[in-house]
Each structure stands twice: as structure tokens, then as C-alpha cells.
Batch of 2 targets.
Target 1
Amino acid sequence: MTKIAEFTDLGSAELVDKLADARRELFNLRFQLATGQLDNTARMGQVRRDIARILTVLRTREIAEAEALATEGGAQ
């Protein structure tokens, strides 16, 4: 499991790549579950939480950028 601090250190492009990888892994885990090949079912929860953490970091950055633009626009 990855800590949120590890995600905050990454750039936005890297986070988008990690998000795509995590979603792909979750799809594969669901496929393995459906076919009866999944041994570690706890991994699904870990990947889902990592996806949520990545999305949270991306959204936090998006909000911070929007606030910075609003502050700049209001100062003029």
C-alpha cells in the first residue's frame, strides 16, 4: 500500500500514469476474481484505495490552481 505522501511528491503527469496503471491492475484483478484465479483478494481493496488517493491529490491540486487563478483575477 502506498502512502499519500508518496503521491504528493510526484508530478501531475506521473500521477495520471500511475492512475492508469492502477485502474488497469484493478481491471485485471476483477477479471481474475471472476475466473476464480485471484489468490489475494485484499489486493483489490489496496488498489482501490490507491486510486482514491491519486484522485484526491489530483483534485486538491486542481482546486489550488483554481483558487490561485481566482486570487490573481480578483487582484486586478
Target 2
Amino acid sequence: MSDAVHPGWAVYDLDRLLANLAAIRGRCAPGQSFIAALKGNAYGHGAVPVARALDGEGLAAFMTGSFDEACSLRTEGLRTPVVMFAGALPEGMADLVRTGLVPTIVDRAGAEAAARAAAPGEAAPVYVKVNAGLGRLGVPLEEAEAFLLDLAAMPGLEVQGLYTHLPFGDAHGRDWAAGRFAAFDALLARLEERGLAPPVTQAGASASVAAGLPDRSNAVCVGHLLYGLSPFTDASVADVSAYRPVLAEVGSRLVQVSDHPQGSDIAVAGSYGIRRGRRTGVAPVGAAQGLARPAPGSRPEALIRGRRAPVLAVSLEHLTLDLSDVEEAAAGDAVLLLGGEGDAAIGLAEFAAWSGRRALDTVLALSGRLAAHYRGRAGGATRI
């Protein structure tokens, strides 16, 4: 659909994506490999364009929880293996294995189903997830050693990876995660003593990388930092200023500009009988395109001709702005809700603060609802 028909767009900067990966590499131990988390349509950034940009970067794997997204990656002919996060029932293992995907195993029923799906004389590659303390998914830590010894003796199965997930957002969580990392490291040591050494082991993720937690695994799986998003609710835990948001711009265009003389009613802004004249503009983006209605007490603004214009209202498909200080604004002018114009800029944190949402929730809300454009490596324009 042409931007002139219903103007609204999001711009994703793939050079920032690669710069974030380089910064992550600089924080990790020499020789550690990297897994890119592509779940949630690559955290809302577009799984296929992101994977294309990362495919030549020597990653150990892409990981996603969506079968449809994983199949899209496979049809792209990408060289990086695609691992599925835990979530498939045993009866779904055959589809994963036969599509060339690597399933995650969390119980014996899933392992047996994956082994049955292997081609004659071959072994199905799998990852095993261990619940090291989060309490969500995985083989319980205290059962993992025996479970992996059992899988090692199972024909038709090859354990290529072993991982856990230990996210945290504040200093208390960091201390908890440090203890759980140690417990997972102890499991790896015991497995090595038994002659079991999966090619990929992973416990580290964005929070632990940023906070510098020690880790004996040979890979880290990154999501938040890769996309320039902070994993922390407490900003004092670690400095993440080196990582820039990959979502670089969100914009639309004015489709109408109106003048309202003194005394006019402007019900859309709750101004009945305004005391001075006002000029307003409307852009065709709203809640249906992923924008949030301004939270009480917030003062959202957009950029028009390099100047800030207050947002008066967000409705289902329209954004109304006060153009009193940008009187020369006209239909067709760009409206930037996120991004820079001249010396003025609106960052992701400010844009997300409209509704009190996290930056990640803001990016996810826009995913698939605006025309998506990519600049930098593997750029171009496509809709996600």
C-alpha cells in the first residue's frame, strides 16, 4: 500500500543492529558464540530482515518460538541453524524435525517423538532446556544430569545444545541470577566428567551480559541488547548506553490542517469555547496502528518541520496535534513521533513514555501495523 494512501511508517536501522552485536561481543569472553533471539517477530523488528542481516555474522543459531516465522527463515535459505524455543507438544516434533528445525526438548515424550521423526540412519538434532530456577519451562535442574545421560543412549537423537534462562531486571534479581548461574555451571562440570559435552551451552543473555555476570557456557543468547532495548527495570544495575534502538523512526503525514478561531469548540481535545485561536493538524495513525493514548499527566509531542507540536489526542486511526507554534505546517508534512529532524529529536524512551509502557512493549505494539522500511545493511522496504 502506498504511503500516500494511508501514510504511516516505521524505519529500522540494521547498521545499529550490527553495531549492537559488536558491542555485545566486546562484553563477552573470547571464543563465546552468539545466539540471536528472534522470538516475537524479532522483538517486533521483523524476523526475516533481521535474520538476513545477521546470517553472515557467524552466529551459532537463531532462536524463535513461532513455527511460521521459523519456516519463513528456512525458505530464505539462511545458513544459520534455527532452534525452536520450548513450546511444541510431542505430536508436533515431527513437523519441526522434518522442516529442518531444531526443537527444544523438556521431557522424555518430546525426545522420543523427535527421535521417531529422524530419517532412517540419522539422528534428529535437539536442544535441551534446563529449568535452573526461573520456574517456567525446562527439565528441573536436579533431574537434568540423569535426563541427559538417558538421552545420550537414545538412538535417533543428537543433543546439540543445552541451555537455561535466567533473566533479571534489578539488583536483587542480579544476585539471584548469580547463584543460579553457579548451579548451572556445576551441572556442566558434572556432565563433562561423565563425558557429555553438548557443542552449544548457554545461560547468559542480555541482562547477564550487560551486568558482567561470570559464565562458563560457550554461548550467549541475546535479545534486548541486540535491538538496543534495556532488560532492566532498575537503570543502576548496568550501563546500556552503548546499545542504540534499532527502531529508528516512526512517522506519518498531515492529511488536514484546520484553523479554529477564538471561541470555537474543539471537542477532540476537550476544549469547549477556546480562549485563543488554534491551528490543529491530523495524521492518519492511531491506536489501530499501535499508538497508545497518552497516559494521564504525560505531555506527548511530535516533530513537524523540525519543531515540537503537542499531541492533543489519539483515537482509533487518527492523531490530532496542536500546530499553534508551527503555523506554516501544511497537509503532506511529515510528522515524526520517533526520530530526528534538524537539531530536534524524540527518542524511544520519550515515545514509550506516552503510555507508561516499556520500550519493548511499544515496539511490539507497532509490529506489523505500519509500513516497515529498513536502512543500512540488507536494507530496502518491506511490510512486516
